[in-house]
Design brief:
Strand content: 5-15%
Bound molecules: FE2/S2 (inorganic) cluster
CATH class of the largest domain: Alpha Beta
Strand order of the largest sheet: 2-1-3-4
CATH architecture of the largest domain: 3-Layer(aba) Sandwich
Order of helices and strands: HHHHEHHEEEH
Structural class: alpha+beta
Length: 160
């Protein structure tokens, strides 16, 4: 399987950072980096990561099934994760979630037809003190309101 030179460099650095026989520790970051480049975790990627880390494809598949941040479904260029756990729920997280679904015209784990946005309702993302919170790719947005979400999405659309 062929990756970009940048991703190959990340893989090499990761695999070297663990002692011999411990390359399995690189599985999660390798999958995350590759998912960023490919848009999803494919079967071919699972095979490749298994080969490079010396574990079985079944073990890599178990990791993919466990971690919700790893996805076998293609995501949008901007993956919006909205927390509806207790702190966010109490401060408008559910309204925010419903507003996002209406604005983008998609539901949980769906992608807009142009491939630009995907939505996911998630458990606590560790930003309870700034609830309601959401994440776009790796970037956090705090104290969100439907109006702030509209501005955020409109600005991302302009950046496309
Ligand atoms: S409950 Fe939403 S960030 Fe923790």
């Amino acid at each position: 399987m062929t990756f970009s030179p940048e991703l190959e460099a990340k893989f090499e650095k990761l695999l070297k950072s663990y002692p011999p026989g411990r390359q399995r520790s690189a599985v999660v970051p390798m999958l995350l980096y590759a998912q960023d480049e490919l848009g999803s975790v494919t079967g071919e990627l699972v095979e490749e990561v298994a080969r490079r880390t010396g574990i079985t494809p079944l073990e890599v598949n178990e990791v993919v099934s466990y971690y919700s941040m790893l996805s076998r479904q293609p995501r949008g260029k901007y993956h919006i994760q909205i927390c509806t756990n207790i702190s966010c729920l109490l401060t408008g997280g559910e309204e925010l979630w419903e507003h996002a679904c209406r604005k983008l015209g998609i539901g949980n784990k769906e992608v807009t037809p142009d491939g630009q946005f995907s939505l996911e309702e998630v458990e606590c993302i560790g930003a309870c003190s700034w609830a309601p919170a959401l994440q776009v790719n790796y970037e956090f947005h705090h104290h969100m309101t439907p109006e702030k979400l509209d501005r955020l999405i409109d600005n991302l659309r302009k950046a496309v």
